[in-house]
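Possible regression after last week's pipeline update?

I re-ran a chain I had predicted before the update to compare outputs. Posting the input and the new output here so someone can diff against the archived version. Not blocking, just want to make sure nothing changed silently.
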Amino acid sequence: MPRSSQTTPPTGILVDLKIASLLTAIEQEKVPDRLIRLAVELQNALVEKRRRELTN
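New output (post-update):
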């Protein structure tokens, strides 16, 4: 049986962590091109989260 430190969190939690990380990065970013890239990544993560919520 795997130890809890070796298990992977559920995908939904991983998506939530990615969204939180992207929001933090956006708050701290100053470079417009990077802000646009982060915003696109955030949008994709939110779409993924919404799709998971609709299938569950």
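Follow-up from reviewer: compared with the archived run. The chain has one domain: 8-55. Marking as no regression found.
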